[in-house]
Structure formats: C-alpha cells, structure tokens
Automatic annotation (TrEMBL):
SUPFAM superfamilies assigned: Families 57/38 glycoside transferase middle domain, Galactose mutarotase-like, Glycoside hydrolase/deacetylase
Protein name: Glycoside hydrolase family 38 central domain-containing protein
InterPro entries: Gal_mutarotase_sf_dom, GH38_C, Glyco_hydro/deAcase_b/a-brl, Glyco_hydro_38_C, Glyco_hydro_38_cen, Glyco_hydro_38_cen_sf, Glyco_hydro_38_N, Glyco_hydro_38_N_sf
GO biological process, one term: mannose metabolic process
Domain Glycoside hydrolase family 38 central, first and last residues per copy: 516-595
The species this protein was found in: Paenibacillus rhizosphaerae
Keyword Metal-binding: yes
CDD domains to which the protein is assigned, alphabetical: GH38N_AMII_ER_cytosolic
Annotated Pfam families: Alpha-mann_mid (PF09261), Glyco_hydro38C2 (PF17677), Glyco_hydro_38C (PF07748), Glyco_hydro_38N (PF01074)
Alphabetically ordered keywords of this record: Glycosidase, Hydrolase, Metal-binding
Highest taxon of source: Bacteria
Signal peptide: none
Family stated for the protein in its record: Belongs to the glycosyl hydrolase 38 family.
Length: 1074
C-alpha cells in the first residue's frame, strides 16, 4: 500500500507527546540570578519573579537558580511522574549552551538540558506529595554558531506529567521497528512482517479523543498486539553489538576547567538516575581527573559511583589521567599519564585498567604500543582516525605493531555520526541507522561479528538519554537488525581477543597512526607548548636532583607531594584540546595561571634538592672522603649535568664578581671563559667551558682572583685563530658562514667535512609567512593549499654584534613584518658545531603561519623525526596520497635529513610542527588562528631552534645528544664549603645508544627508578652502573613502566647488565644499602 510508511511515521510522532498524561504547569517557580549557593538562592527566591513560559534569561557565562516547591496530586501516587523542562538551547553535543544541575530536597539528582528534558521524580517524593526542586542553570560560554556575542535563553516548557507506561512502550517499540523497516530491502520478509504488525496494532488506537482514558486503554491493546506479532517474526543470524553508555567530557574546550567540574556533576548524576530505571545499563567513564573533581565537588555522587563500580554497572577505565594529546607530550609525560591514572583507579575503585580509551585525540605516536604494554594495557580504542582527509585507514580491528615490535590489539568504533558526516563518532546514538551503519562501515566482518558502540551525548558531556536506553532495549531482539546488548569495554576487548587472536586474517599495521587532519595542533597556542616543554624538563631535573639528594642522605625529606602536584597540573594541561591549541581564550588564561603554579612548585622542589648540595644541610650522615674544601681553591660552583652521558659545554655562571675571577677545574686546570655583557638588571655573568661533567651528576669548578690567566678570557693556548664575528662574515673552527643583507645564511661551509651545507642559490633561515585559512577548523587545521601564498620576512631594521667570543659569538638581528617584530640572536660556539637561533617575536598577525626554512644540499627520499622514546622515518616526496597527506608532521626535539656520510639536523626547544620536502627543512613557529580564540598567539614569543650539520647519519653525528643538550643545559649552582665529593655521577651506561631518560624515587619506596630506552635501532647489551659515592647497590630489578612486577637482576660492581631490543624501553629499580 502506498504511503504506509509515511502514515506510520506520522502516527508515531503523534504518540510522542501523548506518552505524558495529565500534563499541568510547573507553577510558582522563581528565578534567582547570580547566586552561588543553594541556601542563598532559597533565601532569596520569595522576592524574585515567578518564571513563565516565554520568559528569557541568561547572557554569556551566567548562572541562575530556578526554585520551586513542587506538589503532586494525591491521584498521582504510585505513578511515574516526570517534569518536562526546557529552559533554553544547549548547543547539540557540544553542550556549550544551557545546562542545569537539578537538586531534589537539596541533593544532586540529575541534569536537565535540551537533550535531557525529562526530570524523573522519586516515587517516595510523589507519594509524600511534595519535593523541593532547585535547578542551577548555566547559560553557556560559546553559542552553537561559534560567535562570542552574549546570548540569552527562552523558557519553552515547564510542566509536570504522568508517564503512561503502555503508550511509552508502544511509542519506542513502533519507532524502532519503523526505523528498522526503512533500512530493509523491499524483498526482505521481515520488512513486510513488521510493517503489517504495526499496521494491525495502530488500527486499534482510538484517535477520537487523544489523551482520554479511552485512548490510553487502546494503547494497551495496540501494544499487546504489536509485541505478539513482533515476537512471532523469525530471527536469523545477526551481528552483535556491545553498547556501552559514554559521556565524552572535554576537560576544557569551549568552556573552562571550572565549567568542566560542573559538567561532571550534571552528567554523572543523570547517569546514576538512569541506572535506577534501567538495571541493565552499563556506563563507561574515563579520565580520573573528572573523578577527582567530583570527589571534591559532589562527594555523595562520588560514593554512589563507587557502589555502581562494585556492582558492575559503572566501568571506570581508560587508563590515562585524562584523554591526553599523544603528539606533544614527551615519552615520560605519557608514562606519567598512565601511572597517575592507573594508580588513581586502583586506589579509588580497585580496578586495574587494560584499555586505553582515546576516542578523540589528534594522532597516535608509534611509541604507544610499547608504552601501553609495559603499563599493563592490552587494548587500544579510538575513532578519530576516521577523520583523515585523503586516505581511509584500511582496518578497523587489527594488531598495531609499535616502534620496538610490540603488538597491541586495536579496534576502531565505526558508528556513523548523527548528522551524516563522513567520519565516525564516539558520541553515538542508538537508532536503526546508527547500529546498522556501525556494522556496514566495519571492514573486518570476516573475522569478527561483535562490535562496540559508545553511545551518549558528548564533548560537553550530557551522556546517554532515556531515549537511547529505551532504544537499546528494543534492539536486544529486533528482527533483521544487529542485536544490541549492554556491556563494558574491557569485557568486549577480552572477548574480541579470544575471537581473533589465532585468525590468520587478522591484519597487522607496522607504523605510526598518522591522523591526516588537525595538523595545526602541532603549532597553535605556542605559549602552552613552550611551557609544556619547560615543565617536562624542569620536573626531569627536579626529580633527578632530589633522587640524588635522597641517595646521599637516607633521612632526606623527598618532596613527593610537590612533585606530584606539579605533575598533575602538567598532565591536566596536556588534555587533547588544551595543549593542541584548540580551546577558547579563557582556557588559555587559566592555563597560564596553572603553568605559573606548576613552575613555582617545580622550582621550589628543584631548589630544595639543590640546597642539599649548596649549604650542605644534610649533616654528616653518609659523608664521603672526597670533600669540597675551598681553602686555596677559590669560590666553588657546582655544575650539574641532568643527562645520561658525560658532557663538555659552556655554562653560564652568575655569582657576584664572576667576571673578575679566573675559573679552574677541580684538578686545577684553568678553564676558558668569556664575559657576557651586563644584563638589564645589572647582573654579571661569565661563560665557562666546563669539561667532563659526569652523567646525571656534577663537577665542581672554582673561581679565584689572580693566577696565570686574565679574568673573563680564554687561556692563551685556547685562543683560536679561525674566529671572526662580523655583520656578514662568521668564522668558527667549524664553519665559514656568509650572511646576506637580510641576515639570511647564503653560505654555510663545513670546514671539517670540506663541503657546503646549503643548497647553492637558496638562502637559509628564511622566515616565511603563509596565508593560513583552513577550510574547516581554524586552530586545528593547516590545509595543503597554505603554500600557495607566501611572503618572506626581509625587512632587517637592525644588526648588532653582541658577543665576539672567544667562546661564543652572537649577532642580534631585528626584523619588522607588518604589525610584528622579530628579534633573532644568531649564535655560534667555539667548541660545539651547534648553531642557535635564539628568537623573540612580538606577533600581531592573524591567520598567518610563520615558518623558518633551511634549503640544504642533501639528497634523500626520507627524513627522520624524533618521537617519544625513538624516531620515525617519513618520506620527503609526494609520490602517493599517503605521502603528501603528511605535508605537515610532528616531531619532538629534532628532525634530520641525511644522505650517505653527511646530514643536517634541525633542533628546537619547544616547537613541534615540521615539513621536509625534497631538500628543504621547515619548522613551524607561530600559527595565529582566529577561532575558537580570536587572540591566539598574539603577543610575545620566545623560543630557540638550532641548525646542526654533522658527518655521518643522525645517529653517528650525535643529533640526539645535541637536541637533548639544547633542551637541558648544564646547571651552575654556587656552593659553600662542605663534605660532598667534588665530582659525582649518579648513574652511567657503557653504550652510546642507550638513553637514560628519567631518574626518580620510586612511587612506593625509597628505591631509585632509572628509565632508559634504546634510540638507535641497535640490539644492545649494556652495563648500568651507579657511582658508589652516591650509594651502594644492594638489589636491582627490571619492572614495567608502572613500577610493578620486577625480575631480579644480578648485581656486580655496583651495577647490573641489561639487554635491549631496538627502541626498547626499560625501567630499572635499584635498592641501596642503607
């Protein structure tokens, strides 16, 4: 029959509103704006206006309380009573508009928003006849259209009603039968059978008086017939879907951290209320950060969640402290995300996560499989990879092989987005099209017929609705549709592993998971990226220094709390919309405050540790025979080396009168020096070339008046003849350099390699500005066509030679570009081939991308990029779509372009976006998007990048060590006379390809943790040895990254031996004899 489907669709729509019987206005509700507490709101409510439908309220980031004493008719007792509340617009899944936290009799009950308009009253309150209702409503911070104009909301619905069970059941059953029917082929027997069943049932409805008792009696009859007919339809084999409720809450994005805390209370209270109505409901929530907020802000909800975790309805998983970006954080940061997150879940809920849940991050480091496996994680889930611009990833269930060979079972959720976009979503719905689309999109149907569906409103929270849970019940046994069962992610992955582990058709992906999208997130909001790198290095140094202090003095009060607090702030700001630079302006105001707090904590901890080596405050315990005795030696200064190999480099010494002193090593050797011009604050500093500073240790130098040398100069034997620093000619022992009138390098001749470094005719260190107007997501994206319009920064206003040597030469260049200024200090060294570009920028451009370009005379089809705990090769050509899709790629501290026997590396101290095509290496410096922060990247920037030519490849040439040295300079600390050794190295290894990355105190003991990794791709046997002056090793064990387990190792000569596979990470825990 024609139009049968359309007729049924209309009748079902009409049923939707008729589910609510005896509707009556919610009367005498008062609005109390701009009051913080419920008590204040209740006290003021009587003097405030009564709210009526049509009233408006709001403004940008405003709060209002809606207060009412609700009474229920006696006839409603023992019935399901609901409130129907629509106070404004929510903004879809973003929830960046109106949201309300409901309190019933003073206790948080659930949320109301545009997606959750039903308010469920407890049966006890209905039977008692009244309840105190209060809604703390937030107006939102960013309107759905992305504008920043203030906006208000209209009160659309304020009603009470009785939910009619039969009509409600009929509505949902028919709705999802119809959705299924519309997807079936005309030849499907189930299509005709279900259509006929609905037709028969709906003919029984009495539409003569909708809403009457007669009508509701007819819905009971129709429901009975419909279910009887539905049960009679045969079921064939069907795909299985494990549906888990989910509430993706961006810890900050179009809202601030404080709003996220409120979103957690709203979203989780709704989940708990719906669990009371749906006993089968299983809900997953990741991100311990949110639980920590909830524990403090909503303690009663938190305790209820703990009960639900024990009962199995609430799954606390995901592993990381929060859903972190995986491009920008260092390897150790990723470890701490897991360490902090997993320990929280174990401590608070007694669960040990096995799933990394990262649905929405913007790329996945090749180091992740190993990091995860060595953290007790066996499974990985995401959906964001489906957003790739050029190539669809070929697999949805596969083994992901990491850089070291570790394999990780990986599964992508393939739920189609609600609005029909081309990508998949983690904010799924449960509809006929969503569950069928989930199966249709899935590529590994030959090995797996059970898929995972994460459903619920998300990004700004909200979570599942009753609509979704009712739908899940209907699809538990819907003919011809995938069969939906509620379940958890951990159990899903365990079952998936059992199904596919021995299947030869299970595909393997050996390489990084590069997201072909959101490439601008490597560069946006440069201040945060700079502070992230600074904090990673500062905490690295603080942990090492305090671990050494603890080793030397077992009674030392190790500042674990200060370190943990600082780390927590750093981890929070690594969230996948904060550190990528894709949040609103207020988020970055908050993060500046947070980074200042984290920095203060870390500096205090570092200074506390260093004080143990300056004032000798530890007392006599553990004293060693070799003591710092300053008599006759001069003013002692300790030079700390927080890296894992012996280093020789210049160190800046800042003590009163430093420029008047001659500096000597502990052995009495005079050290080359250079006076640094007085600073603006009047302080004086001197550069000293310090030699052979022990790995993870220190040496002592002495400054004294008199002696054979001249204060503030190199010794006569050290003076180089091939040293010249002028405005256009620079000569060092390593290079002959020529600059053009714009201050760009036009020749860089490597004297030792006897070759030109730069491509003939192409200047280097060219500052290029590109028009950066991406098609979709301004702060997130750089589109490939950005290269079509480029300007060069060439307006050199001033060139000044600041330092002429003998240890360091510095030329200051100041450029003007439109509304901006750029100052660079071109820096060369007498004893090191690194060339630094110390840069300060005052940037006032919008949608302009600043890059530094280095055309080098190197022929190679691949370049090497440092990633966490290793490196990856990427093509320099655009042969295929997979190649040119990587037109902008991420790296940590260095990239390299090498040919046989020679190469050039570009190092950085806080930049991540790079592009290397053919022979040109470029580093992205500033992006300056206009949405969602219209002031992004405006103002002052400070950063350093360095050119590092080398003989051999990057490994033979020492690129990795050079980049680490740029990021982790030597520390000079004036000391007093005392009892500690003049030189000491905590730990060292005997193989150059083994990087000691972290030295810290163990989490649960005073043992020392030493984290290392192999970075050259070389299978290695290595000896790890501690300085007996620091402590005598009594035991050693290799643990996982969580400091769990532990294979005892043989100890000899105050050390032990380990075997590394290429790119393997190892964690060594050593105990000391006390």
């Amino acid at each position: 029959m024609r139009f049968m489907i359309e007729k049924l669709e209309r009748r079902i729509q009409e049923l939707a509103g008729l589910r609510y019987r005896d509707r009556k206005p919610l009367e005498n509700m008062h609005i109390v704006p701009d009051v913080e507490s419920l008590a204040e709101a209740k006290a003021a409510a009587g003097s405030q206006p009564v709210v009526k439908v049509g009233d408006r309220w709001g403004g940008r980031d405003r709060y209002a309380w809606f207060i009412a004493d609700v009474t229920f008719p006696a006839s409603w007792r023992a019935q399901d009573v609901v409130g129907l509340i629509k106070l404004g617009e929510t903004g879809g899944g973003n929830c960046s508009g109106y949201e309300g936290q409901v309190y019933l009799n003073g206790e948080p009950a659930q949320a109301v928003d545009r997606n959750h308009a039903e308010l469920f009253f407890p049966a006890q309150a209905v039977d008692e006849g009244r309840v105190e209702l209060a809604i703390r409503a937030w107006s939102g911070l960013t309107p759905p259209n992305g504008s920043h104009m203030p906006f208000d909301h209209r009160v659309d619905v304020l009603e009470l009603a009785v939910l009619d069970a039969a009509t409600d059941d009929l509505y949902y059953t028919a709705l999802h039968m119809l959705q299924t029917v519309k997807l079936l082929d005309e030849r499907a027997l189930e299509k005709q059978a279900m259509t006929s069943a609905m037709e028969e049932a709906f003919r029984l409805l009495d539409w003569s008086a909708p809403g009457s008792d007669r009508f509701y009696s007819s819905t009971e009859q129709a429901l009975y017939v419909l279910k009887e007919r539905l049960e009679a339809i045969p079921r064939g084999p069907r795909p299985q879907i494990t549906a888990v409720g989910h509430c993706h809450i961006d810890v900050a994005w179009l809202w601030r951290l404080k709003h996220t805390r409120e979103k957690s209370g709203r979203s989780f209270s709704t989940v708990l209320t719906l669990m009371d109505r749906f006993p089968e409901y299983v809900f997953l929530q990741s991100q311990p950060q949110l639980y920590a907020y909830l524990k403090k802000d909503f303690p009663t909800l938190y305790e209820k969640i703990k009960d639900r975790v024990k009962e199995g309805n609430w799954e606390a998983t995901g592993a990381m402290w929060l859903e972190s970006d995986c491009n920008i954080p260092s390897g150790e940061s990723l470890v701490r995300q897991l360490l902090t997150g997993k320990r929280f879940f174990k401590r608070e809920f007694g669960v040990d996560n096995r799933v990394l849940w990262l649905p929405d991050v913007f790329g996945y480091s090749w180091a992740l499989p190993q990091i995860l496996k060595k953290s007790g994680i066996d499974y990985f889930m995401t959906t964001k990879i489906s957003w790739s611009q050029y190539n669809r990833f070929p697999y949805d269930t596969f083994m992901w092989r990491g850089i070291d060979g570790t394999e990780m079972l990986t599964h992508y959720i393939t739920t189609p987005d609600n609005d029909g976009s081309w990508f998949y979503t983690y904010n799924g719905n449960i509809t006929g099209s969503s569950i069928q689309g989930l199966w249709d999109n899935y590529r590994q149907k030959d090995i797996n017929e059970n898929l995972l569906l994460a459903y619920g409103w998300g990004d700004g929270g909200g979570g599942p609705t009753r609509d979704m849970l009712e739908a899940a019940r209907r699809y538990e046994d819907m003919p011809a549709a995938p069969q939906v069962k509620q379940g958890g992610a951990e159990a899903f992955f365990e079952q998936l592993e059992e199904r596919v582990k021995d299947n030869p058709q299970l595909h393997l992906w050996d390489g990084e998971l590069y997201l072909e999208y959101h490439r601008g997130t490597y560069t946006s909001q440069a201040y945060n990226k700079r502070m992230n790198r600074r904090m990673e290095q500062l905490l690295h140094n603080a942990e090492f220094v305090n671990a050494l202090a603890l080793m030397l003095n077992p009674g030392y009060a190790y500042p674990a709390a200060g370190l943990a607090d600082s780390w927590e702030i750093v981890l929070r700001n690594q969230f996948h919309d904060i550190i990528p630079g894709s949040s609103i302006h207020e988020v970055y105001e908050d993060s500046r405050v947070e980074y200042a707090e984290a920095e203060q904590l870390a500096v205090q901890v570092l200074e506390q540790g260093l004080s143990q080596f300056t004032a000798e405050g530890r007392g006599e315990a553990g004293a060693q025979p070799d003591s710092v005795k300053a008599e006759g030696k001069g003013l002692p200064v300790r030079i700390f080396n927080p890296l894992g190999w012996e280093r020789s480099f210049v160190s800046e010494v800042s003590v009163e009168g430093a420029e008047q002193l001659v500096w000597y090593s502990a052995a009495g050797e005079e050290l080359p020096t250079q006076i640094i011009p007085a600073q603006e604050d009047g302080s004086s500093r001197v550069l000293v070339t310090v030699k052979d500073v022990p790995a993870y240790g220190y040496t002592t130098i002495y400054g004294r008046s008199g002696g054979s040398g001249t204060p503030g100069s190199a010794s006569a034997a050290a003076v180089e003849t091939d040293w010249q620093i002028t405005g256009d000619v620079v000569e060092t022992p390593f290079y002959s350099i020529r600059l053009n009138e714009a201050g760009q390098l036009v020749s860089l001749y490597d004297k030792q390699a006897d070759r030109e470094v730069l491509k003939p005719g192409e200047p280097a260190n060219v500052l290029q500005v590109f028009e950066d107007k991406p098609m979709a997501h301004d702060a997130w994206d750089i589109d490939i066509f950005y290269q079509e319009k480029m300007r060069t920064v060439e307006d050199l206003k001033k060139l000044t030679v600041l330092e002429e040597g003998p240890l360091r030469g510095v030329i200051k260049m100041v450029y003007a570009y439109h509304n901006s200024t750029i100052e660079q200090r071109f820096t060369v060294y007498r004893d090191d081939p690194r060339i630094d570009f110390v840069t300060k920028v005052d940037w006032h451009e919008h949608q302009q991308l600043l890059k530094a370009a280095f055309p080098v005379d190197i022929r190679s089809t691949k370049a090497t990029y440092e990633i966490q705990f290793g490196n990856v090769e990427r093509p320099t050509h655009w042969n295929t779509s997979w190649d040119y899709a990587r037109f902008e790629s991420v790296a940590q501290r260095w990239v390299d372009l090498s040919e046989g026997g020679y190469g050039v590396s570009l190092l950085n101290d806080c930049k991540y976006g790079h592009d290397i095509r053919n022979h040109v290496i470029r580093l992205s410096l500033i992006k300056s998007a206009v949405y969602p922060d219209g002031t992004a990247d405006q103002g002052e920037h400070e950063f350093t990048y360095s050119l590092y030519p080398h003989r051999g490849g990057w490994y033979e040439g020492g690129t990795h060590q050079a980049a680490c040295g740029l990021n982790t300079p030597l520390l000079a600390v004036p000391v007093q006379e005392g009892i500690l050794p003049e030189a000491l190295g905590l730990v060292k290894v005997n193989q150059p390809n083994i990087m000691i990355d972290t030295v810290k105190k163990a989490e649960d003991s005073d043992d020392i943790v030493i984290r290392m990794y192999e970075y050259g791709g070389i299978r290695t046997r290595v000896r790890v040895e501690l300085d007996p002056q620091a402590g005598v090793v009594s035991a050693a064990a290799e643990t996982n990254l969580m400091e769990e387990g532990g294979e005892p190792l043989s100890v000899s000569g105050n050390g032990t031996e380990l075997r590394f596979k290429p790119y393997e990470i190892k964690t060594l825990v050593v105990s000391l004899a006390r």
